[in-house]
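Course assignment 3, question 2. Fill in each field.
Student: A.L.
Task: Predict the tertiary structure for the chain below.
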Amino acid sequence: MSSPVVFIDGDQGTTGLQIHERLRDRTDLRLFTLAAAERKDPRCRAQAINACDIAILCLPDAAAREAVDAIVNPAVRVIDASSAHRTQPDWTYGFPEMTQGQAERIANARRVTNPGCYPTGAIGLLRPLLQAGLIPGDYPVSIHAVSGYSGRGRAGVEEHEGQGAVNAPAYQVYGLALAHKHPPEIQLHAGLAQRPIFVPAYGAFRQGIVLTVPLALRLLPPGVDGAALHACLARHYADAAHVRVVPLDESCALQHLDPQALNATNDMHLSVFPNAEHGHVLLSAVFDNLGKGASGAAVQNLDLMLTRQ
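Answer field:
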C-alpha cells in the first residue's frame, strides 16, 4: 500500500512553513507542495488538491473557501488552518482534547477545521469548567492574551525582523473595537451563552502565547473555589499527552508566566491562580502560537486522520 499524499496549500506562510518543517522528514507519507510559478494558478491548485489524500490549507479565509469549493474528488480529506470554517456545523473542530470522543471524531472526519491560536487556550480553559457547571453559561467572560508577532503572519515577521525592525513596537494591544474574529469561535466551542470580551496583544518576541481569564468567585455557583476549578481541569486532561494542568502548589509558587516557555512544542500548560482573600481566580494558558496554536495542532490532527486513511 502506497503512502498517503499530503498536500500543503500555502506552504510559504508562517503556519505552512512550520507544518512543512515538521513533516518533511517523515517516511510514512508523501509531502507535496506547488512550485512558486503554480501557487497562484487556480488550475494547478485544483489539480493538486484533487490528487491528494489529505490537504492542509494554510491560506487566507477566502482562498481556503475557494480551495474547498474546487474539490470534486470525494476521497479528499481536508485540514483547514484558516478561520473560514471554525463555526461551521458540518466541519469537525480540530481540538482533540476538547471533549471526550473528539480525537475519534477528528480521526474519522472528512473536513477538519484547525482551532485558532487564541481560542485553543480560551476553550481549553473554559469548556471543561462550563461542561461541569462550575462556570455558568452566562458568565461575563473576559479574555486577555499576548502573542508573539508571528501571530500577524508575514507582516508581523517583516516588521520585527526586516529592515525597519529597530522601529518595531515592543508591545501593542489591538482589537480595540472588540470585533475580533475569534469571539464567535470561543463562544461556540466553549459553550458560552454570550460573546466573551476578548483583548489581544502582540509582544516583541517571535512566538508564544500567554492567555488569561479572570473569574470572580461571587459569580460562580456556591462552593466553587480555585481548588474545585483546578480539580476539574486536572480530571479533564488527566490522560492528555499535550495538555498539562500545572499542580496548584507549583502554580502558586510562580511569580510570572513566560509566553515563550513552550515554543517549538505542541504542548499547552494550564494554570489556576486563586486568591481566596479577594474572591478572585485567574486561569492561564501558555503555549506556542505556531505549535499547539497552529502547525503543531494541524500535524496532531493529521496523525489522527492518518489512522483512518
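Instructor remarks: The longest helix spans residues 291-306. Residues 250 and 271 are 9 Å apart (CA to CA).
Grade: pending
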